[in-house]
Amino acid sequence: MLKRLAAAAAAVTIAVSTPAYAGQWVQDGVGWRWQLDDGSYLKGHCWVWIDGNHDGIAESYSFDYKTGYITYDVADQGVTVNENGALLHNGVVATDVIPGGSDYLPGMAGDDGKIFHLVFTPDESVHELNAKIQAEKEQKEAEKEQKEAEKERKKAEEAAWIESIDVDKVAYRIAEMVNEERVSKGYYELVINDELMENAAVRAEEGDELYAHRRPDGSNIETAVTVENRGVAENLASVPILMGETEEELAQLFMDAWLNSAGHRHNIFTSRGDEIGVGVYKSGNSLVGCQLFIQN
């Protein structure tokens, strides 16, 4: 006995007059679907009687409610289907005549394998359901596009903010902060040398290529200093640029990094330094900074 697929007190056959259609089976990489005469696909039903070859005899098929593809895993419903997905009754394909000459009819099979409990949806409702599913799909796509657009907008804002950062301001502010720290600890101020600032800018850019206290060509850092001197010391650091950070805040990030390192801190507070130059290089969404200290 076939398990009834809907609650009903008794098996009844309901004759409904419906217009004739010219639907057809369509197969793609996922499976089989029933295409309506307007090109849309039958959706929103679990079981449907289909007259696939339009010979007046319909078979019953189980469909995925949302996608409209034939489903073959129906064992939990107490029924079986053949290799084409058609419902079997006592081992043979269940068949019946669809009332009104239509080629499909949403409904189920009774214990005799015939149409018994008709869950009829007028053709207009089928199209409304298809339209609803399409609208939901379009809404999800629109939401996805909106999220992508918002992501790109934020990315553009961050890029614009990074572009607006004046590395020369950051560099000069660092030099000022060094002197502020030195004075607060009882040391004299260092002379901020413009030429040495340019030398430090070169070393900051080189630091992006090779983050080490030697130049990319392997030579000593002293060769980057064009100001006459009796000794050179160098501090390097790299900090990220976060959205909204100002030149003042970025300069402080560099200072915090150097002051929290014993070796870098020693260079800042050395009593043998006379002049300072600071350079900052922008690399993507981060900055590379260099402090050069020279002794005259």
Automatic annotation (TrEMBL):
The lineage of its organism: Bacteria, Bacillati, Bacillota, Clostridia, Eubacteriales. InterPro entries: CAP_dom, CAP_sf. Keywords: Coiled coil, Signal. Pfam families: CAP. SUPFAM superfamilies: PR-1-like. The keyword Iron does not apply. Residues 1-22 form the signal peptide. Residues 126-160 form a coiled coil. It comes from Clostridium porci. The keyword rRNA-binding does not apply. Residues 176-288 form the SCP domain. This is CAP domain-containing protein. CDD domains: CAP_bacterial.
